[in-house]
Amino acid sequence: MHGLINRSIESFLRGTYGHKYWRDIVNELDLGFESFEPMFRYDEALTRSVVDHAAQRLGKSKDVLLEDFGTSLIVDRRSQRVRRLLRFGGVTFTEFLHSLEDLPGRARLAVAEIDMPDIEVDELEDGEFSIVIRHTTSGFGHVILGALRALADDYGALAYLEFVGRNDDVEQISVHLLDMAYSEGRLFELAIGAE
Amino acid sequence: MTAQSSFTISLSTLDQMMPMCMLLNSKGVITHAGPTLIKVFKSRNIVGSSIFRLIEMRRPKEVTSIEQVCKFHGAKLYMKIRDEHATSLIGAVSCIPECGGVLLNLSFGIAVVDAVRRYGLAGSDFAATDLTVEMLYLVEAKTAAMETSNQMALRFHGEKSEAEAEAMSDELTGLRNRRALDQVMQRLLSTGSDFALMHLDLDYFKAVNDTKGHAAGDHVLQVVAEILTSETRDNDTVSRVGGDEFVLVLPQIMEPDQLKGLANRLIKRLEEPIYFRSGECSISASIGVVTTATSSYVTSEQMIDDADIALYASKEAGRAQFTLYSQDLRDN
């Protein structure tokens, strides 16, 4: 898994549960380093064991932890970059949902080797979306679920999102969009640093 | 060529497809402007103004009349907004013969990064097919990726410098080590610089170690390092090359009297008692010196070897001595 993803998980764990919590994980897993290097590549098994261990220590399910991580990517001040880059996807939440299929391509434009699942978005009927996520490592689905919930708020949309399930490499999310303009949402300025 | 069929579209359709378009009449007066342009020129009444007052058309050549504009039908025009930023614009021109006017569609081109900030533009201010937002995304993503890389490079560089400094210094005294000494000497020898090499060996140090213990010995070495550093100049190199052996590289000092003066001063200061845990340690030093004036040295080994001979002569002569190397020391 790409270092940027590992580093983001690390930042989330450090920021939410403290540096000591992170150091304990490092020691217990005997990682041999203090911090992930954002531009290195790491074995996928390593990412999995960090997430598993982190969840176990918190007495949380891995799914919930990953969903929290996804939410933090949008909400947390420390990862404003991610939120901004995602908001470039569309002017409205619907437009954004439709742009999700481009997400892996967009991510790879920024960092060529980054791991991203294949995403398929279908609008089944008005306001009803099905999002299919395909990746050999499970977990992307819950990260995306958490991020989408936060992004709906960010756009000021009222939506009901649910994890439908997982089958082999495929995870599925359903989105039920209730109100596109439920609240003001958060401002998004195209110009960097303008917000 | 067959006559092109024409159809009517509303201005609102035009605005939706080209939010940065404007219509000019035959006199160059703006009769209609797209919503994004209205935002850009916000405080100025764009409709009703002459295009030439608001925008400077600069390339391929200066254009000041609508007749000239029409010559660029189908071509690309480079312009600048006449405001404090002089924001660049690219324009596509299409002449409408029926009314003698011009349809102008504008874009910020590469200036878009600054333009969106200046004029507070949003994604909805650009046509759906316009790649502006994608370009801004890319700029931001690349900046972020580059920043992360740079931070990493900077951190690695810091760690590398630290490791290098560590590899070049003696842990106990903080003086340069043998490796650093070799590098300095190689550099000076290869550039043909004049310098003196002073080889200093502590006298009675073994006794301190044997009777007062290693902690006392270490303390003595640290005090010696301080003395050597304080008695030499910043551009001199003071290194510890063995247990109680030190080598000083002194650029530009060649005069035997000057070297003798320094050596005697060092010996005198080193002979002052050193206190450690209420005990007193007494040492002295024997010194051998060689300068680049003695012989045309090529390698540092040759020079250190000669300094060794001089040092040995000092020891032989009863320690706490200074000897300047000369060929007859070897002959005897």
From TrEMBL, chain A:
Transmembrane segments: none annotated. InterPro entries: H-NOX_domain_sf (IPR038158), Heme_NO-bd (IPR011644), NO_sig/Golgi_transp_ligand-bd (IPR024096). Residues 2-155 form the Heme NO-binding domain. It holds the Pfam family HNOB. Coiled coil: none annotated. Signal peptide: none annotated. This is Heme NO-binding domain-containing protein.
TrEMBL record, chain B:
GO terms for molecular function: diguanylate cyclase activity. Keywords: cGMP biosynthesis, Nucleotide-binding, Nucleotidyltransferase, Transferase. PROSITE patterns: GGDEF. Residues 193-327 form the GGDEF domain. It holds the Pfam family HNOBA. Gene3D superfamilies: 3.30.70.270, Haem NO binding associated domain. Its EC number is 4.6.1.2. This is guanylate cyclase. It comes from Aliiroseovarius salicola.
